[in-house]
Design brief:
Rossmann fold, six-stranded parallel beta sheet, globular, alpha/beta, formyl-coa transferase, domain 3, 41% helix, 2 domains
């Protein structure tokens, strides 16, 4: 298994998490010089983000440039996340000689913006996501959480593994703006294939009707009915006559008559409870999901059967917490046992000693 050195905030942390989940030896350096780290952790508590991202890693809290360089030289893969290209260079990244090196910055290591700083909401706005999110005629919204960082970490993990499998020595440059642009599949397809510029429409996906959020008797449900599910959806609504209604015969017609269709759906769902809606959706085989609370998700029988929740032992304070596993695994391979290490000076000494 590879030795992986991880330096940085949530993007590097998520990349390292994927390596640790696969059983690789991951050492995480927590340095005050990685400016994104503190800002990235502001969404949730430090312990919560540590349990999710850093279980199964050895953690070293140090600003010792010599120690960091020594760890990099002993690694098979180094992943460094920094605020700018200049900060990457300041770490000595170009002098390190592991087989695979990955740098993650907001705008990459080349180009006129390489030394610009940006938070994730800035990247989302520049990449066009913010333009699409929110209600029409109101201020745009941004995605919560760590979407940009986690997607960038996923790209880093994929690229680094490709190099290791190919047995090549490579330096990989990941710009978060390009990551966001690469994920704009609906926007790109609509523009190139239909000449349509997407815009904000709240919960309504707009180009596939109905795709929207609806209130029911005890909560909310979300519906996504692409053309292939339309016939089954009329059965779900107990309104088979809609099949011969010219207003709704095609997706194009449903787009033109969306308000009338949304009103019919709202009337049908308003008196029904989520449990009944979910059962009927399964019977009719349509893509409809109830909006669940966090407690509902934790108690979900399907996720339990899939062994979704992994126990993480806390080194400090004792106790075991639950954290989500990745959504995939290699068939037949066991999940590694994970513990949340404590980044102390002793950990740094141990890392220096054993490489």
């Amino acid at each position: 298994m590879d030795r992986v050195l991880e330096i940085g905030g949530c993007a590097a942390g998520f990349c390292g998490r994927l390596f640790a989940q696969c059983g690789h030896d991951v050492v995480r350096v927590e340095s005050a010089r990685t400016g994104r780290q503190a800002a990235s952790q502001a969404w949730v508590s430090e312990e919560a983000i540590a349990v999710h991202l850093h279980a199964g890693k050895r953690r070293v809290r140090t600003d010792d440039q010599g120690l960091i360089a020594a760890l990099a030289e002993r690694a098979d893969v180094v992943v460094l996340e920094a605020d700018t290209a200049r900060d990457v260079e300041a770490f000595g990244f170009d002098e390190w000689r592991p087989p695979v090196k990955v740098a993650i910055t907001p705008f990459g290591r080349t180009g006129p913006k390489k030394n610009w700083q940006a938070a994730s909401n800035t990247i989302l706005a520049m990449g066009g996501y913010t333009y699409l999110m929110g209600d029409p005629a109101r201020a745009p919204l941004s995605l919560p959480g760590h979407y940009v960082e986690f997607q960038s970490g996923g790209f880093a993990f994929t690229a680094a593994n490709a190099c290791r499998l190919a047995k090549t020595t490579e330096t990989i440059d990941i710009g978060m703006l390009e990551v966001v642009m690469a994920l704009s599949q609906f926007t790109t397809v609509l523009w190139h294939c239909a000449g349509v510029i997407r815009s904000r429409h709240g919960n309504d996906f707009w180009s596939v009707v109905p795709t929207n959020l609806f209130r029911c008797a005890d909560g909310w449900v979300y519906i996504n009915i692409v053309p292939g599910f339309w016939d089954a959806f009329t059965v779900f609504l107990d309104r088979p006559e809609l099949l011969i209604d010219e207003r709704f015969g095609t997706n194009a017609a449903r787009m033109l008559n969306r308000d009338a269709l949304h009103a019919l759906i709202a009337d049908a769902l308003a008196p029904l409870a989520k449990q009944r809606i979910a059962r009927r959706a399964e019977e009719c085989r349509i893509p409809l999901g109830v909006v669940q609370s966090f407690d509902d998700v934790l108690a979900d029988a399907h996720l339990a059967a899939r062994d979704m929740w992994q126990p993480v032992r806390r080194t400090r304070g004792g106790g075991v917490l639950r954290s989500p596993r990745p959504s995939w695994r290699v068939a037949g391979e066991p999940w590694p046992a994970l513990a949340l290490g404590d980044p102390t000076a002793e950990a740094a000494t141990a890392a220096r000693a054993d490489g």
